[in-house]
Give the backbone structure.
Amino acid sequence: MNSNIFIIIISSAIFYGTPLFYAALGGILTERSGVLNLGVEGTMLIGGVSGAWACLHIGGSAWFTVTMSILVGALAGGLVSTLLAFLCITLKTNQTVAGLAITIFAGTVGLSSYFANIWKVAKTPVPRPIRNMDVLGLADTPVVGPILFRQTSLTYVSWLLAILATVYLFRTRIGLQLRAVGESPQTADAMGISVIRYRYIHTILGGALAGIGGVFYSLAIVPTWVDGMTKGAGWIAIALVIFGFWRPSLTLFGAYLFGALQSLSSTLKARGVDISGDILDALPFIMTIVVLVLVSSRFAHRRLGAPAALGIPYEREER
Amino acid sequence: MKSPIRLERRLEQPKWLNWAVPFISLVAALVLGAIVLWLTGKNPFDVYQRIFERGFAGKQAFSGALEMATPLAFTGLCAAVAFRMGLINIGGEGQFYVGAIGAAWVGIAVSGTPTGITIALMCLAGMVFGSIYAAIVGVLRAKFNTNEIITSLMMNYLAGILLNYLIFNSKSYWRDPDSPQFPKSKNIADRADWNTYKIFGIEMPIAFLIATLAGVAIWFLYKRTRFGFEVSVIADSPKAARYAGIRTSSTIVIVLALSGALAGLGGAADVGNFRGLLDAKGIQMAGYGYTGIVVAALARRNPITTIFVAIFIGGLTKAGYSLQGPDFPSGLVGTLQGLILFTAVAGEILIKYRLRANVSRAGAVAA
């Protein structure tokens, strides 16, 4: 029963969608503060390579090693985004170019590959990968078992984070102030909210989440470091933020939809379904374009709640 | 939390900054790169000296720099052309691929046509393929206001998948049927091989000359024609452009098509002047499109400067490839390129703003 193809597709959609969700959730927090981070792809790769390094070098119990690896990946992602924050917020550079610079600097042939090379993490399987768990011994329950009870720890944490982020954004004072910063920094500033501080904190936080998404690739999906292993996931995550209308809950479903598309080719191939892998591989990218076209008309943008000050550096009026 | 410096908008932008800032950016990038090297236990002076020797010193090294500079000049122009209008086309990579596909098609198909005509036809095919591919992004942007950055990037991945399909996963027209074990494309016809001239012992690929011509043509287009003027009005203020009756939508499509045509031309040069076949793996590994963005940013979108910057980045990249080994890790050149992009972006600040010390108003420090 549990080897039914639909159950496999749904459970692997959640598995593959998890790193997308982490990166997209980071994107939501960053963009809600009015900063557009196009460096997600590079940030994920740096997180991934750092996590793999930590996994190879930090001893102790499996749990400890994995947790530390995730934290190291988050820290690395946070550091990379600090650089972005400095460029975009303090130096007020063009945010799109700065984000692009991050992705080229840290990306497939950049710093992440350099680190992998000098730390010798490439081609060595990580000793303690993130494994799928068996929650409460229910993993073999028909239908819901593989979908709900045989996921990774990071997946369960991501569900918790989705709830926390929703509460944070829409039910707390700080969340309200954050949205104010993203909508109208002038007003927020006049209210005594530090625009700079909110933007820095949420850009760094977003980078840390992207870093965790990267760790999921190097510790769970493959689990070996491969240069450029995220293969565009960071960019898909940026589109997912728009697709989810800057809301964590909708983005979670979007992430699983794209997770399904990403896993489809390997799932179907394993089943011996005769279908061109190339077309399936192309699906997530085609879908991203289609989704963007659907939601990006000016009308839709305004209705769907894009932060009004997104991408605009904040400049206090000169005295 | 008061920062020690503050940015003050310049009322006038002095001319000398236009060349001084890229130079300062470059030096800053090399210093940052040295810090990365030093932190990771390498001797920065040693590494830089070897890059210089392998990339620029001597006729052979310089020929190599020109060879690598050629595709980068095309992709750099591709990025610069769109950038001028405030459009960020990072699809140069994919447009380069499809340009190569189109040119290889012509190169394989021709027989008996004189070399000059073949070169022209291959260029044309590369440009048409590249421009159509980029125009899709332009139409989506103009019609639906779809973010061109993400769509053009997605199109890069799609073009990569198309390349793999044509060479590895199908029996396409491009694939060499005589080599079933090691999938590769057919070689282009002998007469489709592009010329390389020898000038003072330096090998000058004809494609580099074409790139230079293209750079001059773009400069002329943007500085001396009505179209160029309209583009700069749109770049400065889309609203003003609309009031002035400039057709913004069609200009977006035209500029992106032009941008794609340049990248496609680069793809044609890759097939005709350098590899002699459609090397699906090789051109995906090279990442010319992404590096072209670095080139355009450092050149500050000036098409003629782009050619010179391409030579510099070309030499750097070439040196990186040839030095790659146990004590010269891969990824180093990409990291340096990324740092150059950072400092080039940050350098724009020095042009737009004046840095002033925040402590006392009198003790202002000019940048």
About this structure: Chain B has a mean pLDDT of 89.
